[in-house]
Amino acid sequence: MEKIQLTYINGSVFCFNSKDYFKIRETHRVIGSLIGPGIGFTGNKDYKSLPAVFTDIESQFLLEKGIVEVVEKPSLASIPPDSVKNQFQTQFEQQGNEMKSLEDERSMNLFKANIEHIFEGQSKSKTRKQKKSDEEFKPKTIDELIADHEQRLSNTPLKNRLVHIPTANQFEIGYAVSKQVQAKDQFKYRVFRDLWERGHTITCGETFSGDFLCYPGDPLHYHASHIVTILQKDEIFNENQMIVHGRTANTVKKICLFAQEDHDGSIKYHTLNWVTPDDHEMK
Question: What residues does the TSEN34 N-terminal domain cover (predicted)?
Answer without folding.
Answer: 4-72
